[in-house]
Fold this sequence. Notes:
- The structure is a homodimer of 153-residue chains.
- The first copy, chain A, is mainly beta.
- Chain A has 2 domains: 3-96, Alpha-Beta Plaits, CATH 3.30.70; 102-149, SH3 type barrels (Roll), CATH 2.30.30.
- Helices cover 12% and strands 33% of the residues of chain A.
- Chain A contains 3 helices and 9 strands.
- The first copy, chain A, has helices spanning 3-6, 25-31, 68-74; strands at 14-21, 42-50, 54-62, 82-87, 90-96, 102-104, 125-128, 133-135, 141-142.
- Chain A has a 5-stranded antiparallel beta sheet with strand order 2-3-1-4-5, with helices on one face. A 4-stranded antiparallel beta sheet of chain A has the order 6-7-8-9, with no helix packed on it.
- The radius of gyration of chain A is 16 Å and the shape is globular.
- The N and C termini of chain A lie far apart (36 Å).
- The interface between A and B is medium-sized, with 32 and 31 residues.
- β2 (42-50) of chain A pairs antiparallel with β2 (42-50) of chain B, so a sheet runs across the interface.
Amino acid sequence: MTERELRVSKIQDGTVIDHIPGGQALNVLAILGVGRATDDTLSIGMNVPSDLMGKKDIVKIEGRELSQEEVDVLSLIAPDATINIVRDFEVVEKHRVERPEQVVGILSCPNHSCITTGNEPVESRFEVLAEGVRCHYCETIVREDITDLIGVE
Amino acid sequence: MTERELRVSKIQDGTVIDHIPGGQALNVLAILGVGRATDDTLSIGMNVPSDLMGKKDIVKIEGRELSQEEVDVLSLIAPDATINIVRDFEVVEKHRVERPEQVVGILSCPNHSCITTGNEPVESRFEVLAEGVRCHYCETIVREDITDLIGVE
């Protein structure tokens, strides 16, 4: 592919998250804590043509290498994502996302009576099921619309 | 600048919104109605280096030419933005944003007692002041944090 076809150009140092399902890039940003007032330098492609996926999203964050924990959480919305760690324009590490056993923080329980949604200093915690997630505290299960649980700054 | 330095590549047809204040791209998307489930093809650069602005954001939407009304609303958060309409890789029109007299829809009144925030079928309407906006119905004035009034899907 030429640079023109790539739509989003190469970065010098940072992380490239590729093969995100089309339209999910804003949810990926939310998971990574990139809110409306971010200082991070990012390039984002949304709904760009992909041979493999039809349409895909791609997110490039400069100067930041994602931890395995952050990568694992991405699996909930982007199970086929590939993570490329880039240094000096070269890909030095390539990861596939892996489904974690649980997710701490990041997601908010939809149950307003849950201890994690009140004023108590209790961080949210979800067990990851084959399909969906279950709140560790109130056992509410969310199978679809997991993206609704992602807080946006 | 080379393609590499551009970070976000050229598009064939659509609109390029350039010189957005750094970090405001997600608010620009909200104004344009681009939510988490968008079908639009977009390229977004956030906090990329700019000679003029230090850091800037840039948003490219393919296959869509923004109306003057949409452009005007952008002035509230990106007063120095430039709008380039692109056809077949060439810029065919260039607009500066202009501050509109009022904004209908798009922003939500922060006053929970306002008629526009209840169940009545009344669209929000704000007069644009020299600094900030004033609700046409309840006269609530918001000077800062206008971006908090932008609903995200």
